[in-house]
Amino acid sequence: MNSEVPASKPARPAKPPAPAFPLPQPRHASRLPATLAPEDWARIRQAAHALPQVLTPADLDDGSEDALDRLGAIQISKAAGGARPSRWIIPAHLPVALAQLDATPLTNTLRPQLQQRLHQLESLGLRREGLVFTRLCVHPITLAHEGWRIDLSHRVPVPEGPVWAFFRDGDTAALRHALGQAPEYSFQAELALHLNHLVARSEAMGDSAQLASLLPRLQAECGVPMPFDELKAALTRAQDRWEQTVEEQSTLASLGRELAFQGYPDSFDAARKLGRKVTLYLGPPNSGKTYSAFERLAQALDGAYLAPLRLLALEGRDRLVGRGVPCSLLTGEENVPAANARVVSSTIEMVNTRDVIDVAVIDEAQMIFDDSRGWAWTQAIVGVPAREVIIIASAYAAPAIERLLQLCGEKPERRVFERKQQVQLMPAPVPMTHLQAGDAVVAFSRRDVLMLRDQISQNGHAVSVIYGALPPEVRRREAERFAVGASDILVATDAIGMGLNLPIRRVLFSTLTKFDGVGDRELSVSEVHQIAGRAGRYGMHDEGFVSVLKEAEAEAMKILRQQLPKEPRAPRDFKCPVAPNWRHVQTISQRLGVNKLYAVLSIFMQQLRLDDAHFAVAELEQMLELADMLDRNAIALPLNERFKYAQAPVDARLPMLLDQFQSWATHHARTGKAGEPHFLDEYDQHGRLDRMEQALRICTLWLWLDLRFPGVYGHVEEVIDLRGRLNDGIERQLKGKRPLWQRRGR
Question: For tag attachment on the chain, is the N or C end more exposed, with fewer CB atoms within 10 Å?
């Protein structure tokens, strides 16, 4: 019998206990107050996405995590995919955050509730700037000249205690009481003295008829909070601009005067001499503002309708013709004059800034915020020479447009329209199998639109589709099919959010994210409102509804619930975008002896920085790319012709289109002709959908260039014939039952 005792197995090392305070950066543990309990830290971590005391790097001017670390903040969570930022909290705010959770416990309604209180703070002029809350104060300043009044805006820091209390209880009256009266402006006397001096200097010029236009310019500067020294300098510049306008209305003294964009509005002589009456028609979609504008335009002696899209220019022409008003059509690729035309309906880029007209209507003016095309609205608002200008816009764009008009020495009136019917948020997502006639499903890529079309068609529905790559004629036919009931479901991109009048009862988002050229992002509040507003068109349906497809991403309904109650807001610190016109290019070239278009455009961008308080250069990357190509391959063309070419609608991301463009321009420079349109023999109406769409881009580019270079391109009838056949071919495929999205091309 073996009496040996078996050796015992070595004991496994015990797992270290989980830290009582789990931190992304363990060294931050020393920053935690000694009195903080682990369960309290857990509450803060769980509610970090909603607590107003929690910071992200974007809350600081530096925009970095290092800046928060240097401030002694504690990191709560790391940044995650999907653009979720890291979250931090200042140690002193930990008790405040816990008190917040005691007053407003973490539930599904906490974040919307606190967001609503944040909006209430902003409506009271309060906002957070880094670690400090500031308050917008407005004080009237009365000047010596005829009792002129200027409202001065400035921001002052406020104690954070009353603000945190408001986040807890939502008591607006208590917050007002705690903040008390707005403090006086520290430099009020000095500012009044400076303003009176500027006005007296202007009076001394002896041009009393022009003096009234100085007041809105001064008000525009005082309406933007800025340090006193900067404000004095800005007011002096405003008076200088006014003085130069009075002294030099028809002549430009120097390159700086001609190109420094503090004088941009004054470069449109015809508009400045008119004393225009300007009215803003403000309201959400389906409020009747466009209808009212057309009522006024139909009564005009002569006029212009400036549309954001060729499709809407076509629709505007038809509206006026339907009222018995002869109307011409002018877009980037066509000029269709009408006999005895009183009005021209055009795309916004085609605005005529030379010839005086009776009434101009500028549509969808909130697109002044658009990164790539906003310059066209700046130009039209400032430069259209109409005795009466009607600007149709969403209400959130009004302050930016009014500031722009004040820089012109003009004070617009507002006319506010209310929506005829409200759009109701549905309680739950809608399965694709439960779609009904009158539904519009929204996606944000050509591929997704075609995929949804195929899936919905399999359920027995007739489907119309609308997306950006479709030509306007086909978009219109697809819209008409839906409008007359030939199809019962519409699948579309956000193209339906701009002006199309369709009998949509329910708008259903297939996603709440879109690719914006850089990456995927959530839809903005204004995008959600613009698209959702197409539901329940007045006179077509008694009510409108909005929801998401059940097949959308898991967060879609939550995002929609958050975005829909919010009011759209203009971009912070917005500056109106401007792009060069031929006057700028010619002046730079002549004064500096520069003939390369790329160099001229680069100088233009540098000159703009002479005064960028109100204007910013538009995105000119594509124009610069085309200019460089033209300087290398078509330098024999005069500068003005290269400048026309550089504005062509060429998507530089499409090599095929870019190659065609370069070939035509090079041939034009060498021979005076663009050459033969070989694409006429390469495409027809029987190709793949993506190939026909590609051919239509080529047709559009050829017609655009022919309109600007008469006698160089030609073959217009053949190109228009091919365009018509391609439109028919595309429409035939869209109406057919064959699947489209799996086929080649996006």
Answer: N
